[in-house]
Write a structure and sequence with these properties.
There is one protein chain. By secondary structure, the chain is mostly helical. The chain has a single domain, classed as Triphosphoribosyl-dephospho-CoA protein (Orthogonal Bundle), CATH 1.10.4200. It is built from 15 helices and no strands. The mean pLDDT is about 90.
């Protein structure tokens, strides 16, 4: 591993840790386990995935498959497929040390090929995410016939993570980063800044993980329930006042098996992108 690759891997692990430190309703965090998983499993998953995800000189598809296989060997279950699918292109971009992270990412996404799709399909089947079904075009159980970006475009209308591949991570750069930057400007407490970011995603659009498992109506109900908490944290309400209501809703969601996994995955990707800006020499010099 090169020094830059080591820094990228450290940024990935830190982003995963930041996400776990926030009391995110419905998702696993240090305040409460859930869905048969604990925060410790996610820490081990991040440690296992970091190396393959940031391996210098390899393609995005190889990074995805390597990280999924390493995670499965470490914890025996799918804890981080969405995180890997989002962070692999970001890690590949960071390796190129671009002056503009998003512009560099656009080039990486445009260069994805059929081999990347083949390896990513294998990773998705290996992870077997909840609600994974069959599709008429570009089914992950079939041989890939198009580039990974084209395959993601096919799924973009039903999957928010796939959508990022065709909008150059608009949710991360256009929505997530400004919210995170504003939250960090209000407070140095990264856990609460991370929570503000998560609630931004959760209140803004139906979580596609919930849609796959429980349908659009349930996902829309979660959006509406997230909105008051989102507004309270945006208003600067004290964490001590928010925490009881957060944990109460957290327990309610987990009792019903409702996990806003896509919102959590986008949170990690935004935290990762934000940390990459602090380690890339070219990005620092252009600020």
């Amino acid at each position: 591993m090169s020094p830059l690759a080591d820094e990228i891997a450290a940024a990935f692990r830190a982003a995963c840790s930041d996400e776990l430190d926030a009391p995110k309703p419905g998702n696993v965090h240090v305040f409460a386990s859930g869905h048969g998983m604990t925060a410790c499993e996610f820490v081990r998953s991040a440690e296992a995935a970091a190396g393959p995800l940031t391996m210098p000189g390899v393609g995005v598809g190889e990074r995805i498959l390597g990280a999924v296989e390493a995670t499965a060997a470490a914890v025996g279950s799918n804890t981080n497929l969405g995180i890997i699918l989002l962070c692999a292109p970001l890690a590949a971009t960071a390796e190129l040390n671009p002056k503009d992270l998003r512009a560099g990412l656009a080039q990486v996404l445009d260069r994805l090929n059929v081999r990347d799709a083949e390896l990513a399909f294998r990773a998705i089947v290996r992870a077997a995410p909840a609600g994974l079904g069959r599709t008429e075009r570009h089914d992950v159980f079939a041989q890939a016939a198009v580039t990974l970006k084209a395959a993601m475009a096919e799924a973009a209308r039903r999957d928010r993570i796939a959508r990022q591949y065709v909008c150059t991570f608009e949710d991360v750069f256009g929505r997530g980063e400004p919210v995170l930057a504003a939250a960090l400007a209000r407070s140095t407490d990264r856990a609460w800044a991370t929570l503000a970011l998560y609630l931004e995603f959760l209140a803004a659009f139906p979580d596609s993980h919930i849609v796959r498992k429980y349908g659009a109506d349930t996902a829309n109900d979660v959006c509406r329930a997230a909105w008051p908490l989102h507004m309270r944290i945006q208003s600067g309400e004290a964490p001590s006042a928010l925490l009881p209501d957060l944990l109460k809703w957290d327990a309610w969601l987990k009792q019903r098996g409702i996990n806003p996994g896509t919102s959590a995955d986008l949170t990690v990707a935004t935290l990762f992108a934000h940390r990459l800006r602090t380690i890339l020499p070219s990005a620092r010099n252009s600020d």
